[in-house]
Amino acid sequence: MFIDEAEITTQGGDGGAGKVAFFINRKGPCGGNGGKGGDLYFITSSNVTDLKKFTKIILFKAENGQPGGSNKRIGRKGKDLYLQVPINSTIIDNKTKKEITLTDKLSSILICRGGYGGLGNDSFKTSTNRTPRNATPGQKGQEKKISLILRLIANFGLIGLPNAGKSSLLNELTNANVKIANYPFTTLEPNLGVINGKIIADIPGLIEGASHGKGLGIKFLKHIEKVSLLLHCISVESEDIEKDYSTVTEEIAKYNKNILLKKTIILLTKIDLVSKEIINKKIEILKKYNKIVLPISIYDLKSLEQLKKITI
User: Fold this and answer.
1) Angle 237-281-157 (CA atoms, 0-180°, nearest 5)?
2) In the predicted model, what is the mean pLDDT of the chain?
3) Cα angle, residue 205 at apex, residues 201 and 209 outer, rounded to 5°
4) What is the dihedral of CA 205, 207, 209, 210, to 10 degrees?
5) 278-283 contacts, C-beta under 8 A, 24 or more apart
6) Which ranges constitute the DSSP H helices of 12-102?
7) How far apart are alpha carbons 196 and 194 in whole angstroms?
8) Dihedral sign, Cα of residue 167, residue 172, residue 176, residue 179
9) What are the φ and ψ backbone dihedral angles of 102, each rounded to 5 degrees?
10) C-alpha distances in Å from residue 131, one per residue of 29, 30, 46, 127
11) What are the residue boundaries of the structural domains of the chain, listed by start?
């Protein structure tokens, strides 16, 4: 199952405690300082494709620093922890709401610093107190509640109502082998394919009320926020294609109206199922909303080739 969101707790390592100790054969303190706790980083990895591992473990903490030792030995520093995430992952601090997206150019970020080590009693000796018997504990590492969001890197996004033919089209264009069937919500997660060296994402179907939690599609709209071209699929079988068009665009606008500013082509799908007269009539209706309406069928090679040229 593809996981694109997660909430976790991150912590830097705690600093090691300072040591109270004295030299055996001579007077004077020799307790060493504790080691610093490890820092916690997020780092991108091309080998990681989703956020699944962050649902199995929800607390991640860097290694604690080691306590100080006798003879002024400083405790070992805790190991830093590097959490690997996919490229284009957004990291959000739930308290400050500050967010940052890791890309191939910004590939790592420090999230939680480790705590400093405590002071051993050697650090407290003075001219008037030559045998101090006190030391300090190490500082706690930083702790943050983090939300992770993965936005897929796609050039084109297939959008539309359930059963509008998006998955079938993706299969035909890219050999993606996506599960398809003649009922809504076959697509339960975004599917990706490659066409002309560019990535196309099939977003699960939107329905009316999706922005209020109905259906599945609204949770996947994050994946088309950065695409360069939207392919809006509308089935020629629809009895009210204007409503189909407005249902999808209105739900997208409620999520992020800027998505609708992207270049869009309407794909009138499944044209093999109706007459040429019906096709032309529905094209004219849709041209009120978009000048570019491409009638298409997975059984019409000419229309598929025309679409492929658009995506070059």
Assistant:
1) 55
2) 88
3) 135
4) 0
5) 278/236, 279/236, 282/236, 282/241
6) 53-56
7) 7
8) positive
9) -85, 130
10) 6, 10, 56, 10
11) 1-150, 156-310
**Which amino acid belongs to residue 301?**
L
Assess contact for 55 and 73: CB atoms under 8 A: no
Q: Which two tokens stand for residue 105?
A: 């150019």
User: What residue type is assigned to position 260 of the chain?
Assistant: L
**How far apart are the C-alpha atoms of 269 and 244, rounded to whole Å?**
13
Class of 1-150 in CATH = mainly beta
Closest Cα to residue 136, out of 150, 122, 152?
122
- Cα separation, 102 vs 107, in Å, equals 5
Under CATH, to which class is 156-310 assigned? Answer: alpha beta
Both tokens of 127, joined, read 């001219």
Burial class (CB in 10 A: 0-12, 13-18, 19+), 185: middle
Residues paired with 234 in a beta bridge:
268
User: pLDDT tens digit string along 78-133?
Assistant: 999 999 999 989 999 999 999 999 988 889 999 999 999 999 999 999 999 999 99
Task: Record the pTM.
Answer: 0.75
